[in-house]
Amino acid sequence: MPRISTVRRALPIAVAVILVAACGGPGPTPSATSDPSRPPSTTNPATPGSTTGGRPSASPVASPPAAPFDAAALRVTLEPVVGGLSSPLGVVNAGDGSGRIFVVEQAGVVRIVRDGNLVERPFLDITDRVRSGGERGLLGLAFHPDFPADPRLFVDYTDGEGRTQIASFTLDPADADRADPASEVAILTQRQPYANHNGGAVAFGPDGYLYIAFGDGGSGGDPHGNGQSLETVLGKIVRIDVSPSEGAVNAFAVPPDNPFVGRDGANDAIWLLGLRNPWRMSFDRATGDLWIGDVGQNAWEEIDVARAGVGGTNYGWNRMEGSHCFRPRSGCEDPALTLPVTEYAHEVGGCTVIGGAVYRGAAQPLLAGGYLFGDYCSGLMWAIDPATDGPVEPTLVGDTGATLSSFGEDEAGELYVTDLRSGELLRVVASPR
Questions:
Q1: Are 222 and 318 in contact (CB under 8 A)?
Q2: Separation CA 56–CA 208 (nearest Å)
Q3: Burial of 14 (0-12, 13-18, 19+ CB in 10 A)
């Protein structure tokens, strides 16, 4: 990887620093709203042995391209699509054939971009129930795989008490450009011991289940050991079934093939563990693999992969930061821990990884089959061949100057990013190096 000088662009203090989650040291630094005396707990807990209750059928998985991806052959730039957004943190599509792009704003608003134009009226406005600022706010959005036949969309947000709320909302039956804010159904509530490391990504897998990314609960160095504890969803990727089920007590069910179902003391909803702050994740629409950008502590940023259908993987936090010992400082190696596919050091690339996506579109053939990701502070972008299990050194493909906060796809598989500082949605463009 080319050597890059340390971050050159200082961010204005006025920018909401939602993503600077790479803390300065391993010691705990509780926020003013922390209450370490109360252990984290989950309402609507997963019920051991519960069934899936009629999940949606998995989407067909396409064959990946035969030609290997060559990151060294391209460079990436960003092309503005729309501006005027307020602290955009996410970009998704509804998969409904409308061509609309939905942008998540931190304060609690979802906006529509249609035909390259920003629709003035919000699609969803829940600012009245969202606590926003720092690493809190409306953090994730996913549409049901059968949308709009199943008219629900699912969000991850921080409520007025600082808790993570996973909830669904329903499309207004009289207006396809509006979700009804009064239709909220609580799915899962998780207390957060500190104000940072909330995770926030939500996505439906090809199996029709909802995957939710939880950070380790915050402070620095994971003082409660949540990353390695099976008793809490903090520091995990959770996998649940949100299909309606007649007579269901909870708002979700646990898939019976989750890896820790029935284990004493374990939360049955856990799918993956050992994560610090999995801010953004995405499924490869061709292979079904789950790609995770896990924000590091003070030295290393990592990209992890869970191959399609494989659960129970332990990515090592807080024993390891990336592929390096964290606690203890040496002798942490364990074959039961899975190392990142790729990583980069703060000294060469910034402060906070923004997990990206595998490109499966048609407009940028040089990107075909490549996994693209970036850094929040530096605006640098890297790419790797997702066929590798790593470890592999990432190839620098762009220096965008943007304050990257998320990657996302439209229905055709074209890639976009959001710029937190400028309030822009930008399209990813590749050209020969």
A1: yes
A2: 5
A3: exposed
Q: Which residues contact 1 (CB under 8 A, 6 or more apart)?
A: 344, 348, 382, 393, 394, 395, 396
Q: Which residue has the tokens 């490391």?
A: 197
Beta strands 290-294; 353-358: pairing state = unpaired
Mean pLDDT along residues 57-65: 47
- Name the one residue in this structure whose structure tokens are 């190096």: 433
Name the pTM for this structure. 0.87
Please write the tens of the pLDDT for every residue from 211-255.
999 999 999 999 999 999 999 999 999 999 999 765 555 689 999
Q: Identify the structural domains of the chain with CATH numbers, from first to last.
A: 84-362 (2.120.10.30)
CB-facing half-sphere around the CA of 402: CA atoms within 13 A: 30
Say if residue 346's pLDDT is above 90: yes
